[in-house]
Amino acid sequence: xxxxxxxxxxxxxxxxxxxxxxxxxxxxxxxxxxxxxxxxxxxxxxxxxxxxxxxxxxxxxxxxxxxxxxxxxxxxxxxxxxxxxxxxxxxxxxxxxxxxxxxxxxxxxxxxxxxxxxxxxxxxxxxxxxxxxxxxxxxxxxxxxxxxxxxxxxxxxxxxxxxxxxxxxxxxxxxxxxxxxxxxxxxxxxxxxxxxxxxxxxxxxxxxxxxxxxxxxxxxxxxxxxxxxxxxxxxxxxxxxxxxxxxxxxxxxxxxxxxxxxxxxxxxxxxxxxxxxxxxxxxxxxxxxxxxxxxxxxxxxxxxxxxxxxxxxxxxxxxxxxxxxxxxxxxxxxxxxxxxxxxxxxxxxxxxxxxxxxxxxxxxxxxxxxxxxxxxxxxxxxx
Length: 383
What we know:
383 residues; four-stranded mixed β-sheet
């Protein structure tokens, strides 16, 4: 059993009596804890504090008066006494995000309040992690009321379900569960993690790209010839652009979208990687809330990528459980996701990032390529 103990400095020990609430965490194995038990260790029990929409909560824990630390699991040795309400202490008010006991406000858990941490931002909500708790699944299966975007609400969390349609029948979730095609699975909706690929400075505006591949979707429904006089790889009229700005946008930002700005998207030939060659497959400028990055941005060092088209770790990223369930290729090297750029020479193909991080192109009707949406976020302050 994994137990965590929090140690504090000798200066703090002078001013704290049996509370011991802050500093870096340190792990002790069960043998060490047993040794403390043999010394008649006294533990103070502090009940969990539920978060509100705007204030954080804390997990249940046991503070150790002898070694000045805490455990997130109930000790098996020593004496346990009830402590005061943790939220009545100044330690609760000053609990830091990095503390193992910290529970974020509900608005952060629901992706309503954006949080910046270094070069990443969490904002918006989307199905991501497979639910494998049998008791929770039993409760979720009883739910009948769902929101307009198809999600369900249970015990202060949002959940979604999807029927597996994987690329290979041996695919699995991160928890090791083998996926069976045709089976419906539950997923927890979690805040979307974004990489800041461009910081606009003091305006607090950022171009963001999802840290993970969060869904799978074909670029277009057809790949051969034209439809309604439009080439299959015309991004302006593509299925994937429509999906990004309708289904995805209205789901991911159903609870809050104030920070998502509409932006003018350049889809000219210069974004395809050949600045001196006009392509008949390029399309006009679009005004979108959500887009895919173009081919040239995946060659842009200022965006965090290498300026060569070959294999690159900088362009690799992992899929979420939900994306795999929807058909995204797992790929041992973590690739296979679309750019918005059409192939320069083939009307039925669009550019994508390959499994090794190289840039290539494939037919636009391939359903197994994943999606890394990008947005322009405005007014997000450091937390």
